[in-house]
Task: inverse folding
């Protein structure tokens, strides 16, 4: 399925960083990444440089693919003595402010300028498959207006390890 990769590239263009991003398609099956963690590790081994800072989904994010990526990248970073940050993705669906299931003591918020926030909104709006109902199946949007509102707070939150 090419919809999500196309949406991701469009979002990167909105952020004015698409020229700095190398597109890597691992074609791992949706919902099955936990079965392919070794392959993900091998790809990281090929791509990552010692000076890189790895940013990955939170290892307790509540979505199996996000957790598999988060755990794999975290283990890879620790094995290679590298810096890494976790970003909350699915957790915004279930977490409330100061939710005790999230390691907030490790959280760092980075304020966004108005221009950055505008670009962030434009980037989020590129994910039509996530923000619009699927008329073919009758399924509601994956990202509700409340989730989008939370995502559009004027800061980015990372859990620093």
Result:
């Amino acid at each position: 399925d090419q919809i999500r990769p196309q949406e991701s590239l469009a979002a990167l263009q909105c952020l004015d960083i698409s020229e700095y991003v190398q597109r890597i398609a691992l074609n791992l099956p949706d919902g099955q990444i936990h079965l392919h963690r070794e392959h993900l590790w091998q790809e990281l081994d090929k791509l990552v440089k010692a000076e890189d800072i790895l940013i990955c989904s939170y290892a307790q994010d509540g979505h199996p693919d996000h957790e598999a990526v988060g755990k794999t990248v975290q283990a890879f970073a620790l094995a290679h003595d590298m810096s890494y940050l976790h970003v909350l993705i699915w957790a915004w669906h279930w977490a409330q402010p100061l939710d005790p299931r999230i390691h907030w003591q490790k959280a760092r918020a980075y304020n966004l300028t108005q221009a950055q926030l505008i670009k962030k909104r434009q980037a989020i709006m590129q994910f039509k498959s996530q923000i619009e109902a699927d008329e073919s199946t009758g399924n509601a949007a994956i990202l509700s207006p409340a989730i989008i509102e939370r995502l559009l707070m004027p800061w980015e939150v990372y859990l620093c390890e």
